[in-house]
Design goal:
Helix content of chain B: 55-70%
Helix content of chain A: 40-55%
Strand order of the largest sheet of chain B: 1-2
Radius of gyration of chain B: 23 Å
Keywords (chain A): Cell membrane, Cell projection, Ion channel, Ion transport, Membrane, Metal-binding, Phosphoprotein, Potassium, Potassium channel, Potassium transport, Transmembrane, Transmembrane helix, Transport, Voltage-gated channel, Zinc
Strand content of chain A: 5-15%
Largest sheet of chain B: 2 strands, antiparallel
Number of helices of chain A: 25
Pfam families (chain A): BTB_2, DUF3399, Ion_trans, Shal-type
Number of strands of chain A: 9
Number of helices of chain B: 12
Catalytic activity (chain A): K(+)(in) = K(+)(out)
Oligomer: heterodimer
GO molecular function, one term (chain A): A-type (transient outward) potassium channel activity
Subcellular location (chain A): Cell membrane; Cell projection, Dendrite
Order of helices and strands of chain B: HHHHEHHEHHEHEHEHH
Largest sheet of chain A: 4 strands, mixed
Shape of chain B: globular
Chain lengths: 661, 215
């Protein structure tokens, strides 16, 4: 908002368009007492002088330069603000005030930049979209690098880990201790042995007496069996130890590596269990195929293999596209070839599925030659098939390759998921900052500051108070929003209050609107704090819309009372000078045709009961009540509520809505 | 097959033409507009030099090209009303500011309108407001136009209001407005009826003076 603060005069002028539509008087505008001209400020940052308008800096009042915090750095002799910071980074910070967009210079070190931002009170989340990705990438790299350094240091520390944790750490990081390293190499060795065994088992070695070549596996059955047993023993022991050491067994069992482990050793045990039955031996043989999965156990030992796996996972969509388009092309071409070759005699293209094999072999440019088209049409379509195959396969491959190199270089895991979280967090923070400004209006309403602003006197005290609490810009903005409320005869509330009101409308019935303070006494005991009043609100009757058109908000008026704990049932309709505001009141209040009378009891019942705990404070606290009497008003009317329901006040021309929270 | 056909039918020439058109569009938006001189503007409006300087600095900051188009206008206006949706009302405002209906507001238009709103006579202000309400500029405000305007104003309130906005809140508002303004009950409000009715209403008169000291 502050970036367009120069347009606030325009927005306020445009508000004149609402005036004829409004049915009531508008609140008084805050006056700008300081009719000082816009002046140049000199900011001396380590010797380099920057100059800018004061209003430029005022655009962001919650930063150092925009608030009164900069007065701490004011140098009386030279009449300038001196900051002992880096002038290069200050350039981008000052540009933020000027343009409203914060940029991140690429040559800058990320931590130095962060420190500067923190010093000047600017949150990094408002870095513009043009530079935000770069900023976040650099920040993440930095954090990871620091983490890596820390981890290396951390490995030497932590003496009090349980045996279980030590073991787990040893498994995950083999370089932490010599035992772990030994274990790492031993398991690697045995994986290699096991794979080699499986391979050699099938090689035919020598002829036996039967003049037939047998594979080595059948010749040296016992030896191979012993080898296999040994390897499986080692793998089983390793798996059980990992299972024991894992911090979360359930997670460990679901992880890919453990599944590979299980699949690698399972065939052996199944083979042990099953006897040499003729029927199942066929199935047993196929189970042996799974022994080859032991080679995947190498991925624990090889970083590159892991990255390959991650790449394939992250390129799932590209791979899927490749598969899908290939399938489409295969079906099309197989159909075409089948019908083209149907005529020729002794053709191999006996059916469309049979043509699939030809299509695949041709599209991948293998060309075995076991199936060839003989007709001219078949040859033409066959050549088209091979050309298109080259194109289709070539398209997704660069994407996969670039993905692999990206992951390999940045060494990130699940990086998309993390980026989404960061984006969400960033949007959440920006939203909080924005709702901060939205809520600021509601809050200042509640704390009654608005009345202060609306009836500024020319005294010093008030002006100081004003400048302390809310800047002129904000006060003008709030006045604008207030005018809008008046025009539409509705008010802004925040989300919770809105929900609450809805609930109340649903739950409450329209009872007689005369809660005497005594009866409400028991219910309310709510304190001055608006928040607490909100929660205790539930048992009160709802305003009765009645015959009036539309929903006009009932206004409470609440006056400062001299007495101690006064319970006010805040049903009071606005009490104003009968002379001046008759017409306005009549349109606002359904029952206020009788201008002078202020029988506040009738009709509009509101839903907040407020109790004053202190005698009216002279400063508005951050509570839900308007407590301060104004100097302009006649002495605060200490009219105790003799007739409790009808409490009159003196003329006070402003309306305080203590919102039905 | 589709892939093959698609591959072969891609013509490079077409791509080039399209790219050129995009470049042309980019160039046009870079064109700058400079306002008339400070002295002339001072004569045309009721502002003095210093005020014009302040106004122009703010204007140029937000719109470096010197003109505001409707989207930027809506964006700027919406920043002041974070609760609801200010774009319908901003749209009507834009049309009221853009007297020549060129689709963009130059600094002169901006400052002329501000001069009327902030420093003009009562009659001028009311005439400007009548122009704002009269969407099709036919000299009459009818119920539909007023309903649109009032709905736009209510949209700025957003969802969370007290009491909750009903679907016909604005319709009743429009009825009340017409009851007040339409003297001869012919269903439309003319400029004279409007000015007359507003002058009779003290509230409106007073609120028109509200923003005198804005600059």
């Amino acid at each position: 908002m502050a970036g367009v603060s120069a347009w606030l005069p325009f927005a306020r002028a445009a508000a004149i368009g609402w005036m004829p539509v409004a049915n009531g008087p508008m609140p008084v505008a805050p006056r700008d007492h300081s009719k000082r001209k816009d002046e140049l400020i000199v900011l001396n940052v380590s010797g380099r002088r920057f100059q800018t308008w004061r209003t430029t800096l005022d655009r962001y009042p919650d930063s150092l330069l925009g608030s009164s915090e900069k007065e701490f750095f004011f140098n009386e002799e030279t009449k300038e603000y001196f900051f002992d910071r880096d002038p290069d980074s200050f350039r981008s910070i000052l540009n933020f005030y000027r343009t409203g967009k914060l940029h991140y210079p690429r040559y800058e070190c990320i931590s130095a930049y962060d420190e500067e931002l923190a010093f000047f009170g600017i949150i990094p989340e408002i870095i513009g979209d043009c530079c935000y990705e770069e900023y976040k990438d650099r920040k993440r790299e930095n954090v990871e690098r620091l983490q890596d350094d820390q981890e290396e240091n951390k490995d030497l520390k932590l003496p009090n880990m349980t045996a279980r944790e030590t073991m787990w750490r040893a498994f995950e990081n083999p370089h932490t201790s010599t035992m772990a390293l030994v274990f790492y190499y031993v398991t690697g060795f045995f994986i290699a042995i096991s794979v080699l065994t499986n391979v050699v088992e099938t090689v035919p070695c020598g002829t036996s007496t039967q003049q037939k070549e047998v594979p080595c596996g059948e010749r040296y059955t016992v030896a191979f069996f012993c080898m296999d047993t040994a390897c499986v023993m080692i793998f089983t022991v390793e798996y059980l130890m990992r299972l024991f050491a894992a911090p979360s067994r359930y997670h460990f069992m679901r992880s890919v590596m453990s599944i590979i482990d299980v699949v690698a050793i399972l065939p052996y045990y199944i083979g042990l269990v099953m006897t040499d039955n003729e029927d199942v031996s066929g199935a047993f043989v196929t189970l042996r195929v799974f022994r080859v999965f032991r080679i995947f156990k190498f991925s624990r030992h090889s970083q590159g293999l892991r990255i390959l796996g991650y790449t394939l996972k992250s390129c799932a969509s590209e791979l899927g596209f490749l598969l899908f388009s290939l399938t489409m092309a295969i079906i099309i071409f197989a159909t075409v070839m089948f019908y083209a070759e149907k005529g020729s005699s002794s053709t191999k293209f006996t059916s469309i599925p049979a043509s699939f094999w030809y299509t695949i072999v041709t599209m991948t440019t293998l060309g075995y030659g076991d199936m060839v088209p003989k007709t001219i049409a078949g040859k033409i379509f066959g050549s088209i098939c091979s050309l298109s195959g080259v194109l289709v396969i070539a398209l997704p491959v660069p994407v996969i390759v670039s993905n692999f190199s990206r992951i390999y270089h940045q060494n990130q895991r699940a990086d998309k998921r993390r980026a989404q979280k960061v984006q969400k967090a960033r949007l959440a923070r920006i939203r909080i900052a924005k709702t901060g400004s939205t809520n600021a209006f509601l809050q200042s309403k509640r704390s009654g500051l608005l009345d202060e602003l609306l009836e500024l006197t020319g005294t010093e005290a008030d002006e100081q108070k004003l400048s302390k609490s809310v800047s002129l810009l904000e006060s003008q903005h709030y006045h604008l929003l207030y005018c809008l409320e008046k025009t539409t005869a509705h008010e802004f509330v925040d989300e919770q209050a809105f929900e609450q009101n809805n609930l109340e409308t649903a739950l409450q019935s329209y009872t007689s609107p005369s809660p005497s303070p005594s009866s409400s006494h028991g219910e309310s005991t709510s304190t001055c704090c608006g928040c607490r009043a909100r929660r205790k609100n539930t048992a009160l009757p709802e305003p009765d819309p009645g015959p009036s058109p539309g929903s006009k908000p009932p206004y409470h008026h609440h006056h400062p009372q001299r007495g101690p704990l006064q319970e006010l049932s805040a049903i009071h309709i606005q009490c104003v000078d009968p002379a001046s505001h008759k017409t306005s009141r009549s349109s606002l209040n359904q029952k206020a045709e009788d201008g002078g009378r202020v029988n506040c009891r009738r009709g509009q019942v509101t839903t907040a009961i407020i109790s004053l705990q202190t005698p009216p404070a002279l400063t508005p606290e951050g509570d839900g009540l308007h407590g301060a009497p104004h100097q302009r008003r006649p002495p605060p009317p200490p009219i105790p509520p003799q007739a409790p329901p009808s409490i009159q006040t003196m003329s006070s021309s402003h309306i305080v809505k203590v919102s039905a929270l | 097959m589709g892939l093959v056909v698609g591959t072969f039918s891609m013509q490079t020439k077409q791509v080039n033409y399209r790219k050129d058109k995009v470049d042309d569009d980019l160039e046009m938006t870079m064109v700058c507009h400079r306002p008339e001189g400070l002295g002339q503007l001072e004569a045309l409006t009721n502002f003095n030099k210093r005020e014009l300087q302040v106004l122009y600095r703010g204007f140029k900051n937000e719109c470096p090209s010197g003109v505001v188009n409707e989207d930027t206008f809506k964006q700027i206006y919406s920043q002041f009303f974070p609760h609801g949706d200010a774009s319908p009302y901003a749209h009507y405002l834009f049309n009221a500011f853009d007297t020549e209906h060129s689709g963009s507001i130059k600094f002169e238009d901006f400052v002329t309108a501000l001069s009327i709103l902030l420093r003009g006579s009562v009659r001028e202000k009311l005439q400007w407001t009548f122009n704002l309400y009269d969407i099709n500029h036919d000299g009459y405000i009818n119920k539909e136009e007023m309903t649109d305007i009032v709905r736009a104003i209510y949209d700025m309130m957003g969802k969370y209001t007290y009491p909750a906005l009903k679907n016909d809140s604005h319709k009743q508002h429009v009825e009340a407005f017409f009851r007040k303004m339409d003297k001869n009950r012919d269903g439309v409000v003319t400029l004279d009826e409007f000015i007359l009715s507003c002058q009779e209403d003290e509230n409106i008169m007073r609120s028109l003076q509200l923003f005198e000291n804005v600059i």
